[in-house]
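Section 5.1 Outputs to date
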Amino acid sequence: MNLKRIFGALLTMLGIGGLIYTAIVFVNTSGGTRDIKALIIYGVLGIIFFAAGISLVRTTKDES
């Protein structure tokens, strides 16, 4: 397995974790400014990590 694919899988897992944490914060939010900032920060980082990981896995060729 290629090192790029491992790194892409790691980024994908971090992105999924960030999106799940964003969903948990969204469910438990009371509407304060601190909650909104956390939603935006974790949501954007989760989307970036997820998209980067998926694209890295898709564009890396298998070389055996």
